[in-house]
Amino acid sequence: MLNDIVEENAHAIGQLIELLTHLPNNLYRQSFGQRGRHAIGKHVRHIIDHYSALLSATASPQGLLDYENRDRDQSLETDCRAGANQLSAILHSLRRRFVEHHSAELAMLHTSDEQGQVIATSVDRELVFLASHTIHHMAIIGMLAEQAGVEISDEFGVHPSTLRHLQRQQRPMARSA
Question: DSSP letters of 31-87?
C-alpha cells in the first residue's frame, strides 16, 4: 500500500528533522574525515535533492525522473534551518501528493558512461528506494554527529527491516526471562 511506503519515508524524514532542530549550525557544516569531504549538511542536501527529483518528476503526467541532474543547492549544505525547513516541505508534499490513487507509472532517465536511457519504474519503487537511501545517509549523519558528541537515538539511521529483525530476536529472550 502506497500510504505505508510514504509513512516509512515520513518516519525517516521526521527523525532527521528532529535531529536538525537540535544541531548547532557549525556542526551541520563541519568537515569530517582526513580529506574533509564529509559533512552532515552535504548528506542532508543529497537526501533533499533525491526527494526533490521525485517530486519534480511526478508534478506532471509526462515527468521524467532524473536523479543525476539535481539542484545541489549549497545553501542547504551550510544552513541547518534551511535544510530542516526544506525537509518539512518535502514531508508535507509526499503526504499530499502520493495518495493511493496516484499514478504509479514513472519513467526514469538512467545515465551510465555518458549514455542516457529511459527506463520504466514506479512511484512505489522509487519511494522504497528513497526510504532506504535516506536511512543509509542518516546512518552516516548519525555517526558524524556522535563523533562530535551529539547523542543519537538507537533507531536513528536504522532501516525498519533491521529494527523488525532485532525485535524478533528479543522476543525469545523475553519469553525465557
Answer: -BSTTS-B-HHHHHHHHHHHHHHHHHHTTSTT-EE-SSS----THHHH-HHHHHHHH
Q: What is the distance between the alpha carbons of residues 175 and 166, in angstroms, rounded to a whole number?
A: 15
Q: What is the pLDDT of residues 124-153, one digit of tens each?
A: 999 999 999 999 999 999 999 999 999 999
Instruction: Look up the pTM and report it.
Output: 0.90
* Residue linked to cell 516509512: 8
Residue 22 CB burial class (10 angstroms; 0-12, 13-18, ≥19): exposed
Q: How many other C-beta atoms are found inside a 10 Å radius of the C-beta of residue 27?
A: 17
Element (H, E) at 26: helix 25-29
